[in-house]
Amino acid sequence: MVSFLLGQQKGYTKFPCYLCMWDSRAREKHWIQKEWPLRETFQAGMPNVTHDPIVSRDKIVFPPLHIKLGLMKQFVKALNPDNESFHHLVYTFPALSYDKIKAGVFDGPQIRTLIRDKNFIQKMNVREKAAWLSFVDVIQNFLGNRKAPNYEMLVSKMLSGFRDLGCNMSIKVHFLYSHLDKFPENLGAVSDEQGERFHQDLMTVEERYQGRWDRHMMADYCWGIKRDCPHKAYKRRSYKRKFCPDL
């Protein structure tokens, strides 16, 4: 959604960060180089920017839920499928396919289930346990309503654990590694409801266009939002029966 608002090129691009020129393909520098050249301007024609942004970069807020899901994805992808910790994930979530678990596709309730599961920690080795416990500390003391005074140390400890585990640095891990000062004071005050609604609405439009992403699909979606005025009075009344719950 951030890429859509800022006019960035979608997919696995070379410079996905909207704050700096972080090279996502230079993996040998990811855990070494922390400072990258800043993006001076943000307009069409710049690296991985195809359209002029429709909102200012200053109004973009890091969504805590998506940061959490991205961290969980990198943690699971770094697990060895032959280890007991990975087998525990397969047994704990039988409804998920093996490919989804291997790709680290989990939601918020599933992550909370694993946090409460003490058997999951017992199945881990030393490096996996260190990375997982530090990840839980960041969730409870940074990516929520409570921001601990030592949040910088907690995030640094988690990133060190992820590096020792062999995790790749995604764009969400990069935000924590290089742009920790850009996070708001209270991440719990930032709601992901609008972002989740955007994804749910877009799924319906994608089914209509059979997964084809183009400007016509986005125009159809935006026009549907503009016409969505349930409280507007019309001259010609529709006699189609609708379900209206009692308020």
UniProtKB/TrEMBL annotation:
<protein>
    <submittedName>
        <fullName>Uncharacterized protein</fullName>
    </submittedName>
</protein>
